[in-house]
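Late entry, evening session. Most of the bench is empty. Finally got around to the prediction I had been postponing all week. Sequence below, unchanged from the version circulated by S.P.
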Amino acid sequence: MKTNTDFLKQIVQYPLDKTQYFQEKYTKRQIVLHNTVSSGNAKNVIAGWNKNSERIGVAFVIDREGIIHQSFSSAHWAHHLGTNELNNTLLNKQSIGIELCNWGQLKLQKSKYVNYLNQEIPLDKVSVYESPFRGSFYYQKYTDKQLKSLKNLIEYLCELYKIPKNYKSEMWDISRSTALSGSPGIYTHVSYRKDKSDCHPQSELIEILKSL
């Protein structure tokens, strides 16, 4: 079945400065999911990347309302993995990064869930895990609108670049045999680094990935 591409018309183009990414086309083998550890303002996220000198960024940022913002062509690349592996640059070249606007890890303080800025996150927007994931029991939830847009985008990119869509349970932990070896597929930042917690294994996100 051919992927629905109607959503592409709704993507907001908010380009990075041309000096902030590499305008080099490279064969794509992986899609890597991140979250921003920030508010829902995707344009602020992209604007922040213009202030670094390391050419750090990803092609797509999805805000809390599910609006996809594109900062450069998915055929090009920037640094977004930051591994200490010898093949780090190659991994960045051959992967497409997608950021979900999300505060990530939260803390429980005086019966309130707060982000690292001590801003309260309502309970209905919090995922609470029975055992800690990457050191925390509490994370901000990804929204239904975000997940719908993410599914559309992943399906489109997988078809465009012939990336397999098979769900891998190892995407929730560092994996040398798949993610770090450059094996084709869909992963999260935690697949590459022990010090990262994006993305967290929210049940609705897992269901989206299994349904691809």
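Two things to note before I forget:
The chain is about 20% helix and 20% strand.
The chain has one domain: 6-102+142-210.
Will write this up properly tomorrow.
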